[in-house]
């Protein structure tokens, strides 16, 4: 994936304006814009925090079942690696029942683990990223507008790195 040089330049121009707007904009306008942005990012931070608290409770609620799924997979792997070649004298019925039990357990375990990953861990990870971003923007000394400029500059560095590699 390549980024256009003009796109990178736009990000750098926006970053320069946002980080240096202390020099271009009157103090009253700066403080009113920063107040609006602080209110917005506090709302975002609060919403993300409540969502993450809900996800934490859900992770804790599902922890025993998830641990059982991992233990089941480990037990099946151990069973197959140790006993797979030692069932020479087993009847076809026993092999069939054992095989079906293994298949059902593996399918259930993978279903549960992917369900946890998709419905809980991915939103939790995205929420952590958003929470970090909103906390960063709320705690910058020059205000959230200048903080967005820093993020634009970091994005332009990333785009330039992608183009070079």
Distance from N terminus to C terminus (CA atoms, Å) equals: 10 Å
The total of beta strands comes to: 0
Largest sheet: none
Could you list the spans in which at least 5 consecutive residues all have pLDDT below 50? Answer: none
Question: What sequence of helices (H) and strands (E) makes up the elements?
Answer: HHHH
- Given helix and strand content, the structural type is mainly alpha
Overall radius of gyration: 26 Å
Separate helix tally: 4
Quaternary organisation: single chain
Mean pLDDT: 89
| Principal-axes shape call | elongated
Tell me the helix content. over 70%
Percent strand = under 5%
What is the fold's blueprint, element by element?
Blueprint lengths: L4 H15 L7 H57 L8 H47 L5 H21 L1
Helix pairs in contact: 1-4, 2-3
Structure description:
This protein is elongated. It is built from four helices and no strands. The model has no long low-confidence stretch (mean pLDDT 89). It has 165 residues and is mainly α. It has helices at 5-19, 27-83, 92-138, 144-164. Helix 1 runs antiparallel to helix 4 and helix 2 runs antiparallel to helix 3. The chain has a domain at 54-141. Helices cover 85% and strands 0% of the residues.
């Amino acid at each position: 994936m390549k980024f256009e040089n003009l796109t990178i330049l736009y990000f750098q121009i926006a970053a320069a304006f946002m980080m240096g707007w202390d020099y271009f904009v009157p103090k009253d306008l700066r403080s009113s814009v920063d107040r609006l942005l602080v209110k917005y990012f506090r709302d975002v931070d609060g919403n993300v925090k409540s969502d993450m608290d809900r996800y934490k409770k859900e992770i804790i609620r599902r922890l025993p079942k998830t641990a059982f799924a991992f233990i089941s997979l480990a037990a099946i792997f151990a069973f197959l690696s140790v006993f797979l070649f030692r069932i020479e004298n087993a009847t076809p019925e026993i092999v069939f029942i054992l095989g079906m039990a293994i298949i059902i357990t593996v399918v259930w375990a993978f279903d549960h683990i992917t369900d946890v990953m998709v419905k809980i861990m991915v939103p939790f990870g995205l929420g952590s990223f958003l929470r970090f971003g909103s906390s960063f923007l709320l705690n910058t000394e020059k205000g959230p507008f200048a903080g967005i400029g820093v993020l634009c500059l970091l994005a332009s560095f990333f785009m330039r790195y992608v183009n070079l590699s």
